[in-house]
Amino acid sequence: MGQTATFRIWRGNGHEGTFTDYATEVTEGMVVLDAVHQIQAHQAHDLAVRWNCKAGKCGSCSAEVNGHPRLMCMTRLNQLNLAKPVTIEPMKAFPPIKDLVTDVSFNFRAKKSIKPFKPRPPDAPDGTWRMAQADVERVQEFRKCIECFLCQDVCHVLRDHRLFDEFVGPRHMIYAAALEMHPLDVEQRARDLKDAYGVGFCNITKCCTKVCPEGIGITDNAIIPLKERVIDQLYDPVVKLLRMFR
Amino acid sequence: MPEYQTHVHDVLVIGAGGAGLRAAIEASASGVSVGLVCKSLLGKAHTVMAEGGIAAALANVDDRDSWQVHFADTMRGGQYVNNWRMAELHAKEAPDRVRELEAWGALFDRTADGRILQRNFGGHRYPRLAHVGDRTGLEMIRTLQDHGIHMGIDVHMECTIVQLLKSGDRIAGAFGYERERGRFKLFRAKAVVLATGGVGRAYKITSNSWEYTGDGHTLAYDAGADLMDMEFVQFHPTGMVWPPSVRGILVTEGVRGEGGVLKNSLGRRFMFDDIPENYRPQTADNEEEGWRYTQGDKSARRPPELLTRDHVSRCIVREIKEGRGSPHGGVFLDISWIKARIPHAAEHIKKKLPSMYHQFKQLADIDITQEAMEVGPTTHYIMGGVRVDADTQMSTVSGLFAAGECAAGINGANRLGGNSLSDLLVFGKRAGEFAAKYAVGQKAADVDGSQADAAARRALEPFERGTSGEGPYQVQYALQDMMQDLVGIVRNEGEMKRALDCLRTLRARAARVGIGGHREYNPGWHSALDLHNLLTVSEAITLSAIERKESRGGHFREDYPDKDPAFATFNIVTRKSRDGSTEVSRAAIPPMPQELKKVVEEMK
Ligand SMILES: Cc1cc2nc3c(=O)[nH]c(=O)nc-3n(C[C@H](O)[C@H](O)[C@H](O)COP(=O)(O)OP(=O)(O)OC[C@H]3O[C@@H](n4cnc5c(N)ncnc54)[C@H](O)[C@@H]3O)c2cc1C
Ligand code: SF4
Ligand code: SF4
Ligand code: FES
Question: What pTM, to 2 d.p., does this model score?
């Protein structure tokens, strides 16, 4: 490559901001985060951006690149049209802090509201459990989540309707699903799934699944089964009856 | 007078990776109030990046494994300058710490009979690494995080500590700033646990993130604590080399554990050419046996690709130097060849090494199931760190504890893969436990405000110089280039003396760095403040490396290419002397008790 490209980056604080154009040299293999760092090093020392691993493992560098929610460290420049300015903006579902950095604290509160893991008593006298690989794998898919919050960013329930108090969002749906489907977990979460975590607010648009950099089947594998669980456990008359006698 | 918010905790844990989280959980469980500070968001610490696994002698896959074998492997890997007591505690307690993670919700890969599966890794005699594909660190940090958030720990995210506070000889708290607004915070605490990780950002090619600027090492050093073993830096043999923007990003040793082989441009498996004497009995001398080992054949010995990291790195450097490297200055690492051996190899590779598959596919346009990767050494880990008491993890400063990568001792001259994650759990727990015990026995120390005021004033200096000063990144890059060139994988006296001169010049440049903008979330400012830490650890590394006139583990000197038994009897310690200069000394290693000596002998 060895060409120059323009990056139109959102610069602003919590209240106001504007796009600023930066031209910088582009070399082979570069990702969007490299361009941001290059601009930071040579043109704008105070350009705020989160990152850690630069390998798609930590979920820090989420942003909207040309309008698409992406991890900046995994977005190659050769996948973008560099003839036009590349826009880089912060995630829009969350309150802005500065430049590309947003206030994602909602996610930490939402997670805390979900009942934690509660295992059944150990299977073996030495305090360990036995689990089959097949049962573990189902949950391992959800545990791949790197908490980039891109799914939260695109979910219209949060992004457009701002129902942060009613719905914990797709990330925490898969967190709840990982607990519910954990081979050892014995906690009851059906009532909370409906009332506190707001599973009913999801109308299965699958936008979350489309942006997940880990390729987690958020809707099909987690949310839909959770919805079924809620119906089974809260509304199924036989289950209800059994409950009354427990 | 700069303003600051004050927080009061019994125990303050600095760092929220595996070690910090485990320490905070333990301290909190014992009933004291705990504060936990980290530079990034919770769950983003370096531990999240760990891939291969956690070493613990669970003996689930091979029942010949035991704490004794793990202990002997760790000591052999560390070339016998480890703190043997730490190596002993680590080997004995790691299995319980791993099982505890399972009780907190971690889901490791399973054996056929439903127990925790273990994989092969360099320097470990038996399959020992509990793992989840190649994202073990994520599993570990998430388990600790999700467990910890329900324990009433006060978490201060995106907050950087710049100085420890003392009252007389004892620790009294810490001072720092939060990133979002740039406001100062003063933490009063009876005990402080450092769990800040490593120093990789002192080098140009590294697998480490921006956080790894040696903060804990420097905080401890500035507070008067001893650092130890700083010459021992681990260069991991397999980092990505192409394209340039991903240079240094780690390629897990798990690739070799699963059967991946190293080749030079002539197609030769060069690792067979140089097998060190003390590993010869347990290393395969032909390709067939090596392959059988990776497939779980208990009668086979491991392939030379799984020799210790220091050795593999040097062999790679040799191949490159002698002109047998790959097109972009590395060597070839090939896992795709296993398709000649097993059916559905591509699926198998994707399943066993999913993030490696994606990493190469997305970042380098390479399909590792079809072609070889190009790899070369990358700065990965520091064995050296804060000198601590083996049982309690207390440093030489009363009330100051350290655990995880920022503490020294367990690894000696070279760390075995997988021994870090277990180290974090074993000694994180111990640090938390003993910090809490210490705190219970203490009254809160007075913090004299002048220490905090001075720290705040120093922190604001780069703003006073403004944009007319040199930029922080330029000084950082110069330092990284210099350390890479002069104090890297292959060292000599002349170059290291030059490095000391360069460090003096760089210090002067750092003192003139200026930045613009405001205090709110300003990375330029943060980088300016990190320079002091990077310079401090670089100097400690260089001085220690000059003092160790031999080659051992991660420390290789071309002017003293051999191991010298005389140097096996002590560790090198650096501390700040009264006049502010660095004092280098030798600390004798206490003799190993008879029963441990016996274990080492038996396993030779
Ligand atoms: C790519 C990669 C793969 C690896 N794979 C393995 C593996 O398979 N097995 C294995 O055993 N080891 C592995 N390692 C090594 C291992 O991951 C690390 O050594 C280990 O995670 C370090 O943990 P820690 O708790 O000491 O520190 P970290 O997890 O790095 O945490 C440090 C914490 O300290 C905080 N901090 C630092 N400075 C400050 C400050 N000034 N103020 C406030 N907070 C601060 C940071 O924000 C962070 O929260 C790997 C390392 C890398 C880079
Ligand atoms: S599928 Fe549900 S959770 Fe996902 S984006 Fe749509 S509404 Fe939100
Ligand atoms: S589910 Fe996917 S998109 Fe959502 S936070 Fe996790 S990794 Fe990111
Ligand atoms: S920096 Fe870690 S995911 Fe991008």
Answer: 0.95
